[in-house]
Amino acid sequence: MAGDNTGKVALVTGAARGLGELVARRLHAAGFRVALADLDLEAATAVAYSLGEGALALRLDVREKAGFEAAAALLQERWGGADVLVNNAGQSKVAALMDISPEEFDAVVAVNLRSVFLACQVFGQAFAARGHGRIVNIASLAGQTGGTATGAHYAAAKGGVLTLTKVFARELAAQGVTVNAISPGPLDLPIVHESVPADKLAAITQTIPVRTLGDAGFIADAVVLLAGSGAGSATGACWDINGGLFMR
Ligand SMILES: NC(=O)c1ccc[n+]([C@@H]2O[C@H](COP(=O)([O-])OP(=O)(O)OC[C@H]3O[C@@H](n4cnc5c(N)ncnc54)[C@H](O)[C@@H]3O)[C@@H](O)[C@H]2O)c1
Asked: Looking at 154, 157, 181, 220, which residue is catalytic?
């Protein structure tokens, strides 16, 4: 991989489990120092502990701007500042379109979209001041196709993440900061197996052209690539990794 990332500092949200945990592990393996930010501090701490030196856990609620400001300050003090932000924390909610209440809509948008806006504001400014930085946003196929299986509020929020990716990419490009998105289809992760009955999951898998759920490890590797110092010419892009479910 082009560029030396040894000692670079990455913050990953939602890193206590699932895709975020994998991203944190692969960044760490690639030489990054990694801050694992999550609501679930206990689980994030366990992952950080298993990684050892160059990993720390912090409690962060992505719905609060103050949390990102505190995280940026902590990383400044601890490791001289962050170089990479991965906006991974997210939450889908199965709900019938016409039954979603205004409160439920706002709650899902706060976790999936407002969070990305707040994080990009806080870290985008810090990165711009330093003259370099990488932001990778985890979107979703639902945000591209308008799929409602994981909730219309979730799909709308993820569509917004793709738009914010372009907005911040334009704003920060001249200061050495890149902002990209990865848009996965359904992934082969424990949460997917826990939340979708096996027969339904088998039927979903049959609709995927490559006939397998997405490899979360590959998504994590894609994040590492876009987070790397060699990735300076990619910005405002969305990397579709969905087994051929959506092509454009
Ligand atoms: N799993 C899939 O098939 C799939 C497909 C496409 C996109 N995605 C996206 O990938 C990302 C990770 O998904 P996952 O399946 O690993 O999810 P997950 O539910 O397994 O993990 C999400 C993590 O985010 C944390 N989190 C939730 N709300 C938070 C908050 N307010 N503040 C801080 N942390 C919070 C949770 O504690 C958890 O550790 C999400 O953005 C999701 O939308 C997942």
From this structure: 154
